[in-house]
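COURSE: Structural Biology Practicum
ASSIGNMENT: Worksheet 4, Part C
STUDENT ID: 0417
INSTRUCTIONS: Below are two proteins. For each, the amino acid sequence is given first, followed by its structure token string. Answer the questions at the end about the second protein only.

PROTEIN I
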Amino acid sequence: MRLILLGPPGAGKGTQAKMLKEKFQIPQISTGDILRQAVKDNTELGAKAKTVMDAGQLVPDNIVIGLIKERIRQGDCKTGFILDGFPRNITQAKKLSETLQDMNLAIDNVIDLEVDEGEVVERLTGRSTCPECGAMFHQVSRPPKVNEVCDSCGGKLEQRPDDNKETIEKRLKVYSESTAPLKEFYSKQESLRTVEAKGTVEEIFSRVCLMIE
């Protein structure tokens, strides 16, 4: 099973991808995770990516596409994978289609997680992440048991630099201009499935599973 998760920042793509990974035992491919690791390791790529992400802009296509191609060729992707947050524009989608076609592969379903902008701002400004294990929390909907401490590994929770109202609004504008057109792109291929991303994480996950099973 090969899946793509679409949706604006804060729609819950990462959370749903992790749950799908566990249920179907296929790897989650998140460009955000890959790039954040590069930032943490302070690589040349990481330094470039940090500047772009902190400004609320998208990382250049050539960097992202190269990372995705390399990842899909790895052995654990033979039975399928979940693309979390990629592609982000029509150019990337076309390049992905070409790459998969060369490998005799195809995407089975594209899941679009729909949520309104007001809720996105509320979700992201209250979000914190564990830099050690990647676990995510929210001060209202999913607070940690101990303030600023990760429930999973005990790491100190941090708020991403781009999770502030001004930067989030910029990211939503970029999403509307660059990523939202992908819905029409995949709709024409008859692979798009729309899911309302409201309610609890479990409720949203049930809707996603109904769409793909």
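PROTEIN II
(use this one for the questions)
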Amino acid sequence: MLDAGEYERLLVEIASYGYVIAADGSPTGSNSTSQQSKVQDMRDSLDWAFAGHAKKYGKIDLTKVTTAGHSCGGLEAMSTAYHDDRVKRIIMFNIAIFQDDRRYLLQEIKVPVAYLIGGSKDMGYETVS
């Protein structure tokens, strides 16, 4: 969902290491809708950064772009990276590959992937165990 507020602590921690974070939705979680984010939202964020708009936050190293997401957002991160040479890494949090007939797309990934699973009760656990 378009609610970046749920992930504030994680995103602030990552940003504290010098990363620029582009998160969909309200930073406070207020006024969030039940609208689902889309792959195009992540592509738009990359286009925004590569157009120079992220420079106002300091020197930005666009040679180290990482897409990341939780659940469906992880699938968006993966989908964005398939054929976008700007993406150098992917981080996926607690995702499951729901469409077994599309598992072949995993072979399209040509960058390192960090796949974080929350334990045996996580819906993505069976996928990676």
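ANSWER KEY EXCERPT:
Q1: Residues 22 and 62 are 13 Å apart (CA to CA).
Q2: Strands lie at 65-70, 87-93, 113-116.
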